[in-house]
Amino acid sequence: MQCLIIPLTTVPKGTWRCDKCVINELNKPSDAFGFEPAQRQYTLQQFGEMADKFKSKYFNMPVHLVPTDKVEQEYWKIVSSIDSTVKAEYGADIHTIDHGSGFPTGLALSGNEDNTVYKSYIEDHWNLNNLPILKDSVFSFINADLSGIKNPWMYVGMCFSTFCWHNEDHWSYSINYSHWGEPKTWYGIPGSSAEAFEEVMKETAPELFHSQPDLLHQLVTILNPNILMKANIPVYRTDQNAGEFVVTFPRAYHAGFNQGFNFAESVNFAPADWISIGRECVNYYSSIKRACVFSHDELLFKILQSCDELTPKAAALVYADFKEMVRFERVHRKALLDWGVTEADFVEFEHKEDDLRQCTICNTTLFVSAVSCLCDKKRLACLRHFKQLCDCSAQMHVFKYRYTIDEFPTLLRNVKAIAETAYDD
């Protein structure tokens, strides 16, 4: 109202908008959706005091007397209200590498504490620092410290702090443990319904997905489960209490919120049955041009190089995935040759930074093979998109390879031999 030639002190009755302000607002560049960083830092005690004070004041009763269903009802009322001004803060994605873990990790003990008991907790398989790198988890073959995937993240919640609809990177499994505090309310959708869920989300908020196509990968979108269930999407709900684990399965979308002050920790893991799902995910990422967190093929070759450590069942799953990769390479390398590419260079892709070995077209992290052009040697394409790399002739292009076709059979034989011992038993 202050921009008018004669400023007003009150908004006129009826539906009224200042045309000048509307034009200015529409001309602003659209921002990506997301959460704002908090304006202050807290100690754990300060955050807890703030969280308890907020919940007690909001519901006008002691925090421990507020029923979970009342918090849930109020939460969805807030989410569905366009005029809501309720603000909750969340200590999310806190790196255990930097701040330590809620689980014991082998730090020296002082005094006369029982080292035997403490060591059993350090080595326990349910300790989330151990779970991703157990022998049966294929993530144990990843050398890099991938925070959140191989190293747990911690979460300090308060009433209404939210984790939005998402599934895990590379469609891996995840596990979350609540160390202490008030419950965490979860909603889950089976991986088999992931595509149907994505379609409903896009139909419900098309304008959001138009401005940010990868919205579901940004963890910023929440939608009432009732809307999903009306569209025949199966939704499951649980309250996770202190001392309880929640496991999510490959491609399963999940979301939720915290009932009050609590502390949780989570990490990803991948038993051998994930391997084929992981390849399916990378192919999906390629179709939507989403960058990978790690190279699936590079992980596969690291497993093959240590395949003597695999169980027969795991070896069979690795063998099937490797056969699929070899089939892809044979078909697409032939297509490249038929197109007219004759030059080839050996490249150890693992020695390059990930952002320097991405397909220019689909952002897939390259490892087994790639294509470049003499017009710009830094740009690479995967075998799916080599014709889209540039407008130069085939003779200008160069095939980059980490392994020749002749090297594949030996690797296949080794892992196949281990897989077949399952039938010998």
Automatic annotation (TrEMBL):
Swiss-Prot/TrEMBL keywords:
Iron, Metal-binding
GO MF annotations in UniProt:
histone H3K4me/H3K4me2/H3K4me3 demethylase activity; metal ion binding
The secretion signal range is none
SMART domains per UniProt: JmjC (SM00558)
Pfam families attached to this UniProt entry: JmjC (PF02373), KDM5_C-hel (PF21323), zf-C5HC2 (PF02928)
An example GO CC term for this entry is: nucleus
Q: List each copy of the JmjC domain by range.
A: 120-286
Q: Which InterPro entries match?
A: JmjC_dom, KDM5_C-hel, Znf_C5HC2
Q: Which GO biological process entries does UniProt record here?
A: regulation of DNA-templated transcription
Name the chain's protein.
JmjC domain-containing protein
